[in-house]
Structures are given as C-alpha cells and as structure tokens.
From TrEMBL:
<dbReference type="GO" id="GO:0006865">
    <property type="term" value="P:amino acid transport"/>
</dbReference>
<dbReference type="GO" id="GO:0005524">
    <property type="term" value="F:ATP binding"/>
</dbReference>
<keyword id="KW-1003">Cell membrane</keyword>
<protein>
    <submittedName>
        <fullName>ABC transporter</fullName>
    </submittedName>
</protein>
<dbReference type="GO" id="GO:0005886">
    <property type="term" value="C:plasma membrane"/>
</dbReference>
<dbReference type="GO" id="GO:0016887">
    <property type="term" value="F:ATP hydrolysis activity"/>
</dbReference>
<comment type="subunit">
    <text>Homodimer. Forms a membrane-associated complex with FtsX.</text>
</comment>
<keyword id="KW-0813">Transport</keyword>
<dbReference type="Pfam" id="PF00005">
    <property type="entry name" value="ABC_tran"/>
</dbReference>
<comment type="similarity">
    <text>Belongs to the ABC transporter superfamily.</text>
</comment>
<comment type="function">
    <text>Part of the ABC transporter FtsEX involved in cellular division. Has ATPase activity.</text>
</comment>
<dbReference type="InterPro" id="IPR041701">
    <property type="entry name" value="MetN_ABC"/>
</dbReference>
<dbReference type="InterPro" id="IPR003439">
    <property type="entry name" value="ABC_transporter-like_ATP-bd"/>
</dbReference>
<feature type="domain" description="ABC transporter">
    <location>
        <begin position="5"/>
        <end position="247"/>
    </location>
</feature>
<keyword id="KW-0547">Nucleotide-binding</keyword>
<dbReference type="InterPro" id="IPR003593">
    <property type="entry name" value="AAA+_ATPase"/>
</dbReference>
<dbReference type="InterPro" id="IPR027417">
    <property type="entry name" value="P-loop_NTPase"/>
</dbReference>
Length: 343
C-alpha cells in the first residue's frame, strides 16, 4: 500500500507550565508512516502525547521540529490559505462531539460546506447524502440535544466527511459512548474506511476499538512511539511492557499471582499454557490432538479471543504429563502453537 501520512522525526515541545520549570516534550522524535486506506490506531496512557500527535497531523498545532507529509504535500511547511485548503482534506471527530448546539443536524453538517463557499443547492444535496450515509436522514431538523450520544457522533462523522476528506482523525471518538453505541459508531467508521477509502487515524484508550477496527497500531509512551505493528501482532505478541499492559485488558492474559495459586490448589498435576494463533490452529484441534495422544487434561483457564476477525487462543490446562509429551502432541496442530509451563 502507498504511504499516505508520513511523520519524519516530529517533536512538539510546550513551554514550561511555570517560569523556571521544565519544558514539556509532548511528542518526542516520532517517525511513522500510515498507509493510504488503512485504519491506524494510536494507544497510550493519558499524557502519552496522542492528542498532540493528531493535532500535529492536521496542523492545529505547529510542530517544533520534524516534518509531516500528507500524500505528497508537506503540510508542516504550509501557511495561510494553502494550509487551510489542505486542512479541509482532513476531517476530525471528537470525544465530546463538538456540535454547534444552536444549529440543527443539517445545519451542523452544512457548516464546513458554508465555510468553503459551496453554494446552497449543492449544500442541500450533499447534506442529504451525508445524513443518509450515517443513517440519520430522518433527523435533519432535530437539534443536537434531542439526539442520543451515538446519533450526535454520527452527525459529527457526517460533518467531518462533508468536504470529502481523504483523512479522518478520531480523538477518543467513542469514549463517551456506551458499549453498544460504541460498536455502532465503530461499524460506521469501518464503512467510511471501506466504502469511501478514507484513511482513518484513531486515538483511544479503549482496546476494543483497536481490536475491532484498526489494521495497525502504534503504542505511545512519554511522547514516543515505543511499538508499532499490525494489530494482530501487537496484541498477540506485545514486546514492550506498556503494550503488554494494554493488551492484557482485552486479550486473555496468563493466570498470575493469586489466580495462579488458586488454580494450582484446585487442580492436580502441572499447569501448562498453550497459546496459538490462527495459523492452522483452533481450540478444537488443540483439544483433539491432546486427546489423541492420550494426555489426560483439564482446561482450567483461558479461551479464545477475536482480534480483527482472527483467532488468538490462550488455554491453561492441568495435566499429569510433561512438557515434552504436550509439545509432541501439539507439534502437528499448526505453526503458531506454543507451550509454556506455569511454574
Ligand atoms: N497546549 C499545551 N500546553 C502545554 N502542555 C500541553 C499542551 N497540550 C498538551 N500538553 C502536555 O503534553 C503532554 C501530552 O498530552 P496529550 O494530551 O497529547 O496526551 P494524550 O496521550 O492525548 O492524553 P489524554 O488522553 O489525557 O489527552 C501532557 O503532558 C500534556 O500536559
């Protein structure tokens, strides 16, 4: 895939909060390449620099150093009218929706079109088309406060798409929504990506958002990108401590501490964790291979997760047998199977 958004050694420093204090390095020497048409996730704890990073991408904030190009346009070099023209090609949606409360749904979606001088009839046509796309055709004359959170975010998405952007930036766009509404909004974003070919950058602290829609993910810590990869790779094989902590909140973790002790007390034999990716393996194949090899086991912990529609299993079993026997039994199940004893 072709590169779409390229960050080359980008930093953003803010002056110290008080005189004589330390400068704040919100984004620290970040280089990243986001492909055209992908959904790219950025995760990290509060203060890691995620919001600042997206605000640099659309140049709501100037960079302190480094360079950002979008398509072949060096957006960090532009000023004035040329910058504003490029900014209309980048839509943005927010956690708090940021709708204009005094305008109707249609008025909100029309707003960016008015700003760029699209004439009235064309505006009407475009607004109708956008509201249809986000499933709010019947609510054109409602005011934001009359809508649910999910509906308001759909208006936000329609407004962000009004000027036909190639890029959509979503800053915690589902964080104020309940789980069910989150799924609806994520499905809409996935459609925006698939049907309109828009490159989407999502910042979130909700891992489900990433496993559901992001093709790739970057992990930020203290202004730096410490890990980047396909969502599946990062979630099944996180390499940094911070990525491991995030991943554990959604992908089944190994039993640890008290939980492990309880399992040990409750079950006879030794505990082994079998992990597998979708390279030919499945829970059923693992179980049947163990049974065929005559290994007497109990599943005591774990299960199978779905990451971007792909399977990831982490099964802890209690067995009377040894690691070699288990590894031997499982060796033909698939390339992605690993066995580890929980000591
Ligand atoms: N305009 C600003 N002036 C001074 N410091 C700022 C400014 N914007 C952000 N920062 C600081 O930069 C760092 C990164 O903040 P940022 O909001 O980008 O992080 P984040 O990962 O998006 O966190 P959150 O999810 O809480 O928004 C923080 O230390 C923050 O206080």
């Amino acid at each position: 895939m072709a590169q779409h958004i390229v960050l080359d050694r980008v930093s953003k420093r803010f002056p110290p909060a008080k005189r004589g204090g330390e400068e704040i390095v919100a984004v620290d020497d970040v280089s990243l390449s986001i492909d055209r048409g992908e959904v790219f996730g950025i995760i990290g704890y509060s203060g890691a620099g995620k919001s600042t990073l997206v605000r640099l991408i659309n140049q709501l904030e100037p960079v302190s150093s480094g360079r950002i190009t979008i398509g072949d346009v060096p957006i960090t070099e532009l000023r004035g009218r040329r910058l504003r023209e490029q900014q209309t090609g980048i839509g943005m949606i927010f956690q708090r929706f940021n709708l204009l409360t005094s305008r109707t749904v249609a008025g909100n979606v029309a707003y960016p079109l008015e700003v760029v001088g699209v004439e009235r009839a064309e505006r009407k046509r475009r607004v109708a088309e956008l509201l249809e796309f986000v499933g709010l055709a019947g609510r054109a004359d409602a005011y934001p406060e009359q809508l649910s959170g999910g509906q308001q975010q759909r208006v936000g998405i329609a407004r962000a798409l009004a000027t036909n952007p190639q890029v959509l930036l979503a800053d915690e766009a589902t964080s104020a929504l309940d789980p069910e509404t989150t799924v609806e909004v994520l499905d809409l974003l996935a459609r925006v990506n698939r049907e309109l070919g828009v490159t989407i950058v999502v910042i979130t602290h909700e891992m489900e958002v990433i496993t559901r829609i992001a093709d790739r993910v970057a992990v930020m810590e203290a202004g730096r990108v410490v890990e980047v990869g396909t969502t599946y790779d990062v979630f099944t094989r996180p390499s940094t401590p911070v990525a491991k902590r995030f991943v554990q909140t959604v992908v089944r973790a190994l039993p640890q501490g008290d939980e492990l002790e309880q399992l040990r007390a409750k079950h006879e034999g030794r505990l082994f964790t079998i992990s597998f990716t979708d390279e030919g393996a499945s829970e059923a194949r693992v179980f049947s291979a163990l049974a065929k090899a005559g290994i007497d086991f109990n599943l005591v912990h774990g299960g199978v997760d779905d990451i971007q529609g792909r399977v990831y299993g982490l099964l802890t079993i209690a067995v009377r047998g040894d690691a070699d026997a288990i590894a031997w039994a499982l060796q033909r199940v698939g390339a992605g199977v690993r066995v580890e004893e929980q000591r």
